[in-house]
Amino acid sequence: MRIVFDFGGVVFRWHPASFLARLWPHRIETLEQGAAAAATFFQNYGGDWGLFDQGLISADEVVRRIAARTGWSRGDVAAVVRAVPDELMLIPATAVLIRDLRAAGHTLHFLSNMPEPYAAHLAKAHPLGEWFESGVFSSHVKQIKPSAEMFAIAERRFGVPPQELLFLDDHPANVDAALSRDWQAFLFTDTASARRELVSRRLLSA
To answer: The domain 2-13+89-200: what is its CATH number?
Structure first.
């Protein structure tokens, strides 16, 4: 079985509501306000941010567009864009899960919507080549999940039939897209529950 990991929220910390609350205490007082601001800022990873994810616009351009669209200051928006790499901290429990899956003989890949500057940061900061046989960053192929083409690119890159791929992602739309292409997939909510699911599928021992 080939196991495919999403990155943000699965391998690396990504919780936009609390992230924005920490960065913008002058603007956000509660997690509810943080969630609302994140929905406006990231547009569910479509819109301006989706273009950034696809590598179609630069960091400077996404700052300009978000500031123009929202009325938030360029300084505030730029602070968020600059801070994302530090926010993408490795989740220790997932690092252990990756180690255990590799020790069990599974081949691992990744499939991540990730703007080019952040993809470069992760590749420099972590031994991705040791953990994963191969992977696809959206900004490198100019596509994003949940598009069918993004999954088709991954299938070609990974070199096995879709039925041999098991995908872990924290967004339901991405899980549904994988299932529609005959991948195996389940929604990642936390590492402990993912481990239980992998044990139930007899991919890990209890």
So the answer is: 3.40.50.1000
Tens digit of pLDDT at every position of the chain (206 positions): 899 999 999 999 999 999 999 999 999 999 999 999 999 999 999 999 999 999 999 999 999 999 999 999 999 999 999 999 999 999 999 999 999 999 999 999 999 999 999 999 999 999 999 999 999 999 999 999 999 999 999 999 999 999 999 999 999 999 999 999 999 999 999 999 999 999 999 999 98
For every residue of 103-166, DSSP letters joined together read HTT-EEEEEE---HHHHHHHHHHS-HHHH-SEEEEHHHHT--TT-HHHHHHHHHHHTS-GGGEE
Give residue limits of the domains in the chain.
2-13+89-200, 16-87
